Amino acid sequence: MNYRLKLERIDKLKAWLDGFRPFDSTLVAELKKLYDVRFTYNSNAIEGNTLTQSETELVLTKGITVGGKTLDEHLEVIGHKQAIDYIENLAQKDTEINEWEIKQIHNLILRKINPEEAGSYRTLDVMAAGTNYRYPAHYLLSQLMRDFAIWLNSESALRLHPVEYATMAHYRFVSIHPFRDGNGRSARLLMNLLLIRAGYPIAVIDNQIRNDYINALAYGQQNQDDLSQLFELIFDATISSLVEVLRLLVTASSSRGKAQAFYQEITDFLDRSGGLGDGE
Fold first, then answer.
1. Catalytic: 177?
2. What are the residues whose beta carbons fall under 8 Å from the beta carbon of 215, sequence distance 6 or more?
3. CA–CA distance, 202 with 204 (Å, rounded to integer)
4. How far apart are the C-alpha atoms of 66 and 137, rounded to whole Å?
5. Measured distance CA(276)–CA(270) in Å, rounded
6. Which class for 252: exposed (0-12), middle (13-18), buried (19 or more C-beta within 10 A)?
7. What is each CA distance from 276 to 1, 11, 193, 280, in whole angstroms?
8. Which of 74, 106, 170, 177 is catalytic?
9. What is the pLDDT of residue 257?
10. Angle CA(24)–CA(28)–CA(29) in degrees, nearest 5?
């Protein structure tokens, strides 16, 4: 499926999702528990955390310490969940997202593990692992992040399709690489902050496609910011989340009477579609 067709699919799914608003509070709470665990597990696993998804759930819901796992791995889970809570609250506010908010996301991720560097730009120059791509020099970071924040709030950026905008923000942030550690997790949280603000569910990049994801970022960095591979990956993640939430909505008793004009169309679509809804 090509680029534009995927965006049309996203728009169709999003319109159906909006037809069910306002969502039942019980369903919202269940979705939050589900995505707190899934997003935290996959985002941390991409960065090398060895806690499984079920172990991540135990840490978050029961406060249980898992034997054989490091303290830092447990603290990464707790910090990431706090960062999710932060972006979800921030998404409800009609305010600009600037450097302070970005630093706060990073601070929440790392403050229990490395408080000295949490929320602070790196002071060393670094290269992307496994490639020849050199990230910007550390002394350029303040200006680059000011420019990034200006772009993030610019009319040209805000006119983009919300999923394109979120993907581009993710890529631009990662390519600046403002922190010594935690850039990937911060980028995925920032991306989802923009998606949630636009009314989308959290888009989770699955750890199983970690290599494809890293290669998509590297491809853009090495090919004059060609984001075709990254767009494909984020579009698929967005579609998958939209389909999953719609599946829950159409079976919820609280949804009866909502979106009747296209309820059967949604049901038929979900019956035909797989995980990415390509069966139409």
1. yes
2. 229
3. 6
4. 39
5. 10
6. middle
7. 11, 14, 22, 11
8. 177
9. 67
10. 120
- Please check the confidence at residue 279 and state whether its pLDDT lies above 50: no
- Letter for the amino acid at 175? S
Length, in residues, of the chain: 280
Domains of the chain, with CATH numbers? Answer: 3-272 (1.10.3290.10)
Residue 259 is predicted with a pLDDT of: 64
pLDDT of residue 250: 83
Token digits of residue 247: 């599946």
Q: Is the pTM of this model over 0.90?
A: yes
- For every residue of 110-149, DSSP letters joined together read HTTT-TTTTT---SS--B-TTSSPBPPPGGGHHHHHHHHH
CB 233 within 8 A of CB 220: no
d(CA 197, CA 32): 15
In 3D space, the residue among 238, 196, 255, 162 whose CA is nearest the CA of residue 9 turns out to be 238
How many beta carbons lie within 10 A of that of residue 162, not counting itself?
18
**Distance from chain centroid for Cα 117:** 22
> DSSP letter at 276?
T
- Residue identified by tokens 């403050």 is 111
